[in-house]
Design a protein that fits this description.
heterodimer; A: 132 residues; alpha+beta; ATP Synthase, domain 1; Helix Hairpins; 2 domains; eight-stranded mixed β-sheet; 8 strands; globular; B: 376 residues; alpha/beta; Pyruvate Kinase, Chain: A, domain 1; five-stranded mixed β-sheet; two-stranded antiparallel ribbon; 56% helix; disordered N terminus
Chain lengths: 132, 376
């Protein structure tokens, strides 16, 4: 049996093809999905999606969302997804530094919420590059 | 030589009928500057419309100006038309996402109907302050597009004031920004710039802002004001409630009509027996079944928590896209009208110009004949 992965963002289809195995960053920890997985619905955290294609591992930074695993059909709905190879390392590192600085400066409940989210996104992007 | 010619010309003009009074007036001005004329009159002899006749030259200049303007408006129209197509493509690209999302949301809602769930984004609080997200365009020259949405916002503000509610504005788009900056008495939470093509990132920025405003309980209700794209010639400003999301409301048919995902559903803030209530009208449409056996990895609340921000995002993105499409369509119509007007103006100006030119030629012939007659 083959496993089909479909990663959708509001803008475009990021990934729509066959994979061997994926590791999905869910809210309750990472789960590996192989063919013939039981149908589940899960929330996807901000984190790294690992995809195995013929013995090769690819990474993708996911910005939080939702995944539905059906009969060998995975649909991942996320706000934004970027392939690790498409991220500019320098730019990602800079964004991370800015986000860290912003969190330190943040005052009040609202700014802290915003800064925390931004920091987590930035960190994930950097990790997606380095994880390869 | 040229000076005597001039006086001759002026005298011959006076002998003409009243209809040329205007051109006579303008042709008299060069007489006051004879030095200027004597230099230009001789080299430009072959071209019939010499600088002496300012009326003609002005007309010609105006025709050229109108022609240039027409070229610009025509180009803008074509650009807008091309961009409308791109905007439509963006909507089409967003469709698979919103379709799957609505499908999943619908089914999860179905399975959760019985449970008593409590998700922050769906919490309906007594409304004290309302956040208004106003989506305008970045540029003008698009007819009444920006005006219409700003008027709608003003009307809504007046309405909220009438209800004794506080409000704050999140302005998206340069036109709205400059409008609200000029009016400091309107509280604005944040100014955001639109870009040429709305992306998920932009929607995310707005969603983040809205999200934190709502979660930190600064506002108790968020409304989105944008221009709904109906057709190329019709667009209307609408108000759509973003938050609180109704956990039962996100329903639509999945047969491709998902761009209008929650359009069937309208929220109105009204007063009922002296209390503020939110009215909901929901039109239920059929949805196809999907795999019945679905386990939830986490708590249903957590899953909804993950889904609703996505939904919020896609709603905002869609409204941005619709707003852009409306703006471009409005610009297309406005520019097409401008081009038509320019054509008309050009036509009437050329008629006037040709008449004047003929009058001038007639005058010259009269002059020559009179001169010849005098000699014999």
């Amino acid at each position: 049996m083959t496993l089909n992965l479909c990663v959708l963002t509001p803008n475009r289809i990021v990934w729509d093809s066959e994979v061997k195995e994926i590791i999905l960053p869910t809210n309750s920890g990472q789960i590996g999905v192989l063919p013939n997985h039981a149908p589940i619905a899960t929330a996807v955290d901000i984190g790294i999606l690992r995809i195995r294609l013929n013995g090769q591992w690819l990474t993708m930074a996911l910005m939080g969302g939702f995944a539905k695993i059906g009969s060998n059909e995975i649909i991942v709905l996320v706000n934004d997804a970027e392939k690790g190879s498409d991220i500019d390392p320098q730019e990602a590192q800079q964004t991370l530094e800015i986000a860290e600085a912003n969190l330190k400066k943040a005052e009040g409940k609202r700014q802290t919420i915003e800064a925390n989210l931004a920091l987590r996104r930035a960190r994930t992007r950097v990790e997606a590059i380095n994880a390869v | 030589m040229s000076c005597s010619n001039l006086t001759m010309w002026v005298s011959s003009k006076t002998s003409l009928s009243d209809s040329t009074a205007l051109s006579f007036r303008s042709s008299i001005t060069p007489v006051q500057l004879p030095s200027n004329n004597s230099t230009t009159a001789n080299p430009s002899r072959p071209s019939s419309v010499t600088p002496i006749h300012c009326g003609l030259r002005e007309l010609r200049d105006r025709i050229v100006t109108v022609k240039n303007t027409q070229k610009i408006t025509e180009a803008m129209k074509l650009v807008a038309a091309a961009k409308v197509r791109r905007a439509q493509e963006a909507v089409v690209n967003a469709r698979p996402f919103s379709e799957s999302l609505v499908e999943v949301l619908y089914n999860i809602n179905e399975q959760l109907q019985t449970d008593d769930i409590d998700v922050p984004l769906t919490k309906v609080r007594p409304v004290k302050k309302v956040g208004l997200v106003v989506v305008t365009g970045d540029r003008g020259l698009c007819g009444g597009f920006n005006n219409a949405i700003i008027k709608k916002a003003e009307a809504r503000i007046a309405e909220l004031k009438g209800l004794g509610l506080d409000y704050t504005i999140i302005s998206v788009g340069k036109k709205g920004n400059s409008y609200f900056i000029r009016r400091p008495y309107i509280p604005v939470d944040r100014f955001l710039d639109g870009t040429s093509l709305p992306t998920a990132k932009e929607a995310q920025a707005i969603a983040d802002d809205v999200f934190s405003l709502f979660i930190s309980e600064e506002v108790d209700k968020v409304e989105l004001l944008y221009t709904k794209f109906v057709s190329l010639v019709k667009a209307e400003p609408v108000i759509h409630t973003l938050l609180p999301l109704s956990p039962k409301g996100e329903i639509c048919d999945i047969n491709g009509n998902c761009v209008d995902a929650a359009e069937d559903e309208f929220f109105r803030l009204t007063t009922k027996e002296g209390k503020l209530t939110v009215e909901r009208d929901i039109m239920r449409t059929k949805t196809t079944e999907f795999s019945a056996i679905l386990q939830f990895e986490q708590d249903p609340v957590q899953i909804l928590d993950a889904l609703l921000p996505l939904y919020l995002n896609s709603q905002i993105l869609r409204s941005l896209q619709e707003s852009l499409a409306s703006e471009l369509a409005a610009r297309m119509t406005a520019m097409s009208n401008a081009t038509d007007n320019a054509n008309e103006l050009k036509k009437s100006l050329s008629i006037v110009y040709n008449r004047e030119r003929q009058a001038k030629i007639t005058g010259e012939i009269l002059e020559i004949v009179a001169g010849a007659n005098a000699l014999t």
